[in-house]
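Comment thread on ticket #2218

A.B. wrote:
> Attaching the input chain for the structure job we discussed in standup.
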Amino acid sequence: MNNTVCHLISNYTYEQLNIGQSKQMRKQVSAEDILAFAAVSTDTNPAHLDPEYANHTVFKGVIAHGMYSAGLISALLGTRFPGFGTIYLAQELNFKRPVHIGDELTIKLTVTDKHDAKNIVILDCAVHNQRGEGVVLGKATVIAPKEQVTREPIEIPTIHVEDAPPSFGFLLNENESALHHEGRLT
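C.D. wrote:
> Ran it. Output below, let me know if you need it in another format.
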């Protein structure tokens, strides 16, 4: 007998979305996230990957790529709100503050307008850090799904970052140590 609990998630159709309705998710930024994003985007700006360089910038340390935070907005749009079947049409973003390793981000989407002719939905997009400070603000324009879909979420694979730049290696170890200490990694 299989004792696995199945957690199904459903999208929101255009008809189910109301102005003012919102959804949010949280994500803690890790050194591995920054390295993985650099690897897939090929953005190797030293502000993201070289602590010695980054410590001498206005940000006083390594920061996450701005588009990493934007990617979290995309994740919420495509998997939860509206979710499966959402078609991204446009995104406006304003980057307000840097995001550092260890920051706890809250990504919130709020429906602000609907256009019935083509199932278009406009959503305010806000990413805030653990201090409640806005780090990315903007709006997204999407076509919301017409049909309800309920399914199991796709499990995100674990990515192991190998061959990190030597100057970044200590951050990986420091990040892992902090997560062990906080009980987030076993």
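A.B. wrote:
> Thanks. Noting for the ticket: The first helix runs from residue 31 to 41.
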